[in-house]
Amino acid sequence: MPGNVRFRYWKNNAGVDIVLVALTGLLLGALLNLIIIRLPREQGFGGWPRCTRCGQRLAWWQIAPLFGWLLQGGRARCCGRRLDALYPAVDLITAATLVLLYLEHRLSVSMVYSAAVAAVLIVTGAIDWQHRLIYTLPTLGATLAAVLVASGVPFHSALNALAGLLIAGILFVIFYLLARFLFPAHRAPFGLGDVYLGMFIGAALGLTNLPGALLYGMLLAGAFSAILVAARRLGKRETPQYISYGTFLCIGALLYLVLWGLAGARSIL
Ligand SMILES: [Zn+2]
Fold first, then answer.
1. Most buried one in 40, 166, 180, 202, CB count within 10 A?
2. 239: CA distance to ligand 1 center in Å?
3. Whole-angstrom Cα distance, residue 194 to residue 256?
4. Distance from Cα 52 to the centre of ligand 1, integer Å
5. What is the pTM assigned to this prediction?
6. What is the pLDDT of residues 196-227, one digit of tens each?
7. Using one digit for the tens of pLDDT, what is the confidence trace for 113-142?
């Protein structure tokens, strides 16, 4: 089980390299946050960061990953408005992901590939959480990239990627049609974006890992829905009416990837 390998490495070698990987993770998290903030607002990627609330130029320490949010106590220093806790969460999740992947794979093709897949999952999940939006072209582009490089990644192959893409695609188109049929009047709780995301997860993790990756996401989405229903029953009025299904698919696939890795199905079976 990969957990043991990681623990052994941690016990025998924990040192400067892990601190460096964690710091790299925080920097990567800051980069992902830049995409999460700017892509939906259709801002370019040049230019100094500005406050997401009032648009003022930020001081260098305000944009420091994780620490900027902590130093400001979760409120923008410029205008006093609350900053979304999503951004420090992205920093933390990215750093933790990178450390776990490093402990499992060390610096290798598997690590770089898994980190790239994780980055796509984190950005997609965060944007879907904030905007209920999954981009068609970037998601399909990442899917195509996963298929193209799969043959060079250990425990993965082009065939595994294509089979994962195909099966996930068929499964999610069925979900999509069911949602359209069951909720014709409402905005569908399950959109075409979720179909593309499912195809990406299928291609990136491969058919062998698809059931595990989807299961984690579906269990998380189910648990969160149950909490929402309970909160509404208890009369909490501000409870959201919907969940961002894609966010849970992303968290589930990410969790599977860091816990089991691409050889996941092999270690479980
Ligand atoms: Zn501000």
1. 202
2. 27
3. 18
4. 7
5. 0.91
6. 999 999 999 999 999 999 999 999 988 988 88
7. 999 999 999 999 999 999 989 999 999 999
